[in-house]
Amino acid sequence: MLRVATIAGITAQHAEEAAFLWLRRRNAIDGHLLDETGIGRIDQRLEANIEGLEAAGLAGWTLAKERFADYAEPGETFVVGVLALRSGSPEAVAEALELAGPLGEGGVAALSGAIARTPRENLRPFVADWINSRKPMLRSLGLASLWHHRVDAGPKLGECLDDPDASVRIRALKLAGRLKQRQHMPAVQAALGREDAGERLEAAVASCLLGDPKAGRPVLDRLVLTVPGLARRAMEMRLLTTPAAEAKRWLQTRLEQPLSRVDAVASIGLLGDTAIMPWLIEKMRDPELAVAAGEALRDLFAVDFDDTDAFTSDPASLGPAFADREETELPAADQVAAWWKERAASQPGAPYQSMRRQRLDAYRAALREPELLLANWRRTHQYPAWM
Q1: What pTM value is reported for the model?
Q2: How many domains is the chain partitioned into structurally?
Q3: Where in the sequence is the domain holding 81, given as residue range(s)?
């Protein structure tokens, strides 16, 4: 890395801002609140800070590592990783890998984010060694590189689907499903019975994408009832792969079960039935269901609700029952009811394509068209931050 004249305070600010912006992007990339324009503005600022660190040469690299020493967190790991990978220096890459190792899956996820922002030609010298490594972390990063840059792993994917390490198998399942690698269906179906719940979920998703949702649905059903941390994702895929009438009946049974009720309320917007609006507004008056009802509302309508007063960041304004709630995005039932009444009498505007809606649309298209690969919904337009 080059030595260039730098101002240490500005370079350190670049490192801090890059870590913060990457975390902000990661938290918003699949969510309801931002569309590709909003994410694109974050990308513009993030790239500017990365370029500032790159321009600082060795000083930028040193300051990024010093910040990591003070804050060994995913954001700082991402910054170190993206600088190392873009530099192409084997020594810098090895150092970044060593720093990320103790963070476990969090470190792998951060380096995966760095890989996504690194040109393919910079990764080419490393990927083959990673995917053939004896270290699970490196095999995972090799698969992450292929996933982010949409590269077929060839026969190696079969080996990875049978890898001794569950985290490697999970990433291999994601790649097999997203790239429609149907020749690996036997390995995908074998993974439906694995011990690791996360692996079973990815196997079920891959099975659905590869054209066999009937094999995946029983696994999704069990995950909904037995693994709270994965229930929302399992329920989402279950609804996306189930005919409308059957999906309504299936979801009704989950609404009647206390353990799955919140997730079922949050998922009901996926059905696309606006006739539920009076029922949904009533759920917004229940402190335990209000957040879920708000999520369903955002799924139900392609509307930027930030341009309305339908949501509030002041829970206490909703009444004493909400005073102890800590959520910052709560639907205000009365305002939602007024909005719904006004919408019924007016012409809807241009649809708002949140990142979550783009993600759902990508899955719907890939599930509907057997030969269509899952689109990279996370690609965004680059917009100047000041626009």
Answers
A1: 0.91
A2: 2
A3: 1-118
